[in-house]
Specification:
Length: 68
């Protein structure tokens, strides 16, 4: 998997992240986290921010990711 399969690079907000579309992304079926770092870096708030932005601006590419 790479980011081009999940993010809509036509959107300016995505392009501003300066992430290469060909960079490998995470496997959505597997998740491992260091909970100490999770708390230290306040990851929950960061995830909630991105989920809200995705709902408001449609940052992901549902068509590319295989959703309907």
């Amino acid at each position: 998997y790479n980011y081009i399969g999940y993010l809509d690079y036509k959107k300016e907000r995505i392009r501003k992240l300066s992430m290469k579309a060909s960079t490998c992304s995470f496997n959505p079926g597997v998740f491992v986290a260091n909970l100490t770092e999770w708390k230290k870096q306040n990851i929950t708030n960061q995830l909630e921010k991105w989920m809200k932005l995705n709902v408001e601006e449609g940052l992901d590419s549902r068509t590319l990711a295989g959703s309907t």
